[in-house]
Design brief:
The chain is α/β, with parallel strands linked by helices and 358 residues long. Helices cover 37% and strands 18% of the residues. The strands form two sheets. The protein has a ten-stranded mixed sheet, with helices on one face. A two-stranded antiparallel ribbon has the order 5-6. The longest helix is centred in the last third of the chain and has 19 residues, at 339-357. The radius of gyration is 22 Å and the shape is globular. The structure holds S-adenosyl-L-homocysteine (SAH). S-adenosyl-L-homocysteine binds at residues 104, 106-107, 149, 153, 184-186, 206, 249, 251, 280, 282-283, 326-327.
Amino acid sequence: MQGFFTALGEKPFRARQVMQWIHQRGVTDFQQMTDLSKALRNRLEQTAEVRLPEVSVDQQSSDGTRKWLLHVDGVDNAIECVMIPEDNRMTLCVSSQVGCTLNCSFCSTAKQGFNRNLSTAEIIGQVYLAHHALLADGYEQGVTNVVMMGMGEPLLNYDAVMSALNIMCDDFAYGLSKRRVTISTAGVVPAIERLDQSTDVSLAVSLHAPNDELRNQLVPINKKYPIKQLLDACKTYVQGHGRRRITFEYVMLEGINDSLDHARQLVKLLSGVPSKLNLIPFNPFPHTEYRCSDKATIDRFRDYVNQRGIVTVTRKTRGDDIDAACGQLVGKVRDRSRRSLKHQISINNLTGQMNAAN
Ligand code: SAH
């Protein structure tokens, strides 16, 4: 932004003023930016635009969770973004891609295929919309936490995500502390290694299985970057940062990864990594073959790991009545990977078989 103003022959500090107008005051009309000269306002109007993602659907869950469906290419593609209110926090779950390339077997975004990366503007636009919607509703703080846990794999859209994170943390924009911003990854190891040089936001890793054989099935990127490489990169990321811990996410799938033996393997695996464990009850979606583990099994798993010194919590399922829970974000993806087509064919086959059986 400073470069942009310098190129216009203006002082670099104009960048701060405009950042504050846009992100803090929610003003997108250059003519209303009254501490800029009239000539500069006109110039900006001719050379730039502030464009927000277009809200297609704005839904509120009975538990207060709010979900926006945002169009990003006319009506062709849409992404989802979810606000989760909790005590005195307002956590926003932000998308980084239209669809996803990673194809995790238990995730509904995966079934939709992939179209493209989001731009920095489209990522920060989600924060803008949610933040100013909250302010308009009388919440003084607006967004307090951001988790990059919406649609897509943030580390496969590295540069745009880093720029958006910088704006989230910038004092002239949203001023979030690094500890309140979390990147979640399925395990793109080279990008985790690079992350250490770019930022020190919190890192969450979608582990979901305690051994390579099982993880290969659930999170196929594991075939490329197996668990040992992933955990080595995690250890490096926390090194030299006293309080930093990795949050490992672990979806609870009935009969698949939820036994005490899995818990035992997990404790052993994580013994050398400063970690927290988040158990996520599986959120079902149409045509999935998985089921969520029952509460007793989840509690048993949690207690086993907790008792062995790894802080473990079960994530509360939020917003499931409006399909806003983890892994239920589907937006609208004009698939270019043809994966959604394959999924559709397998659903049709399944329905065909069921009809035949009837
Ligand atoms: N690609 C990143 C960001 C997505 S975050 C990542 O994998 O971390 C979304 C989180 O929800 C991930 O931990 C993901 O594995 C989990 N998830 C996906 N589908 C789910 C489902 N159906 N039920 C519960 N959690 C799910």
